[in-house]
Amino acid sequence: MLQSLAHQRGTAGDQEIEAGIAQVRQYIEAHGSSRFEAVWESDTGPYRSIDRTSNRVGVRRRRDDGLWEHFVFAGQWGSEVAKGRDAPALARAMIERGLMLPGADGKSSVSMKVPGLGNSARLYALTPALLNGA
Questions:
Q1: What span, in angstroms and rounded, lies between the C-alpha atoms of 112 and 98?
Q2: I need a labelling partner for 128 at 20 to 30 A (CA). Which of 21, 67, 101, 116 fits?
Q3: What is the pTM of this model?
Q4: Structural domain spans, the chain
Q5: Which of these, 108, 117, 107, lies nearest to 90 by C-alpha position?
Q6: How many angstroms separate the Cα of 107 from the Cα of each of 8, 17, 88, 97, 123?
Q7: What pLDDT score was predicted for residue 33?
């Protein structure tokens, strides 16, 4: 019986990845505005950010097409957003599916300059495809 169930749904690893992606998607849906600071938004213009960010786990920026990109601080990826999952394996699977951008150095996180954070920070770069049903 157990073997036939595994055959029907694929491997246990595949289900774990699917559950992890769903968890990350739900996290962004629930906390996208409250825990991700819009550091690239100016104080003027149509997308002005006036909200205070408590318990920040990352930053976000609006693309030219109006969609948001979310960037999770490396230290918050495994402890908060992907909590309880195999965070490195989840990141690799999300990169393969175009839900996360890989770093130029072959790592799952990207190194980028973020206003107010100094020279460079390591972040997991989630693409808008995560929320757009991909």
A1: 19
A2: 116
A3: 0.81
A4: 2-45+55-130
A5: 108
A6: 33, 19, 10, 16, 10
A7: 84
